[in-house]
Amino acid sequence: MAMRAAWRRTMGGSVARAACLLATAPLWADDAIKAARIPFKPASAADDSLVFRAIAAFLLAAAAAYGLAWCIKRFLPGIGKSLGQDRQLTRLEAIRLTPRSTLVRVRYGDEELLLGESEHGVTLLAKKPAHRAEPQENPHEQA
Q1: Which residues sit opposite 114 in a β-bridge?
Q2: Which pLDDT value is given to residue 130?
Q3: CA gap 66, 73 in Å, rounded
Q4: What distance in Å separates the CA atoms of residue 90 and residue 74, rounded to the nearest whole number?
Q5: Each residue of 89-129: pLDDT tens digit?
Q6: Which one of 65, 67, 97, 132 is least enclosed by Cβ atoms within 10 Å?
Q7: Residue 96 main-chain phi, psi, to 5 deg
Q8: Bridge partners, 102 (sequence order)
Q9: What is the CA radius of gyration of the chain?
Q10: 107: nearest Cα among 78, 136, 133, 81
Q11: Which residues contact 136 (CB under 8 A, 6 or more apart)?
Q12: Nearest to 116 by CA among 98, 99, 100, 101
């Protein structure tokens, strides 16, 4: 009997509280739902036109860049060409001797230079006149 009374005191109070909360739930739940609603704007034609305007702006910028590159190439031909055509210095070949040293053959003007490159610097090892291959007549061709 004492057990039943203890149960009523502990559980009865809890049940009563739960019943009160359930009875008033529609009142406070409506307020919470109303407060939690976030207003939103339905998609409209104005939103779609914004996307099209962004795409059109991108295409216009790309066309302007292409037109500028074409004008530079057309009216300023020196800028559009490779700058390496009139070079005085040309690296002909290089051989790595060790991880920190390299042997380099370079053409500078009318001379060929053999350079040694290491962690201590660059050293001129040999110099000779440049050998430029001139077109030779084909020995198999007969006049």
Answers
A1: 105, 126
A2: 78
A3: 11
A4: 29
A5: 889 999 999 999 999 999 998 899 999 999 999 999 999 99
A6: 132
A7: -85, 120
A8: 96, 117
A9: 44
A10: 133
A11: none
A12: 101
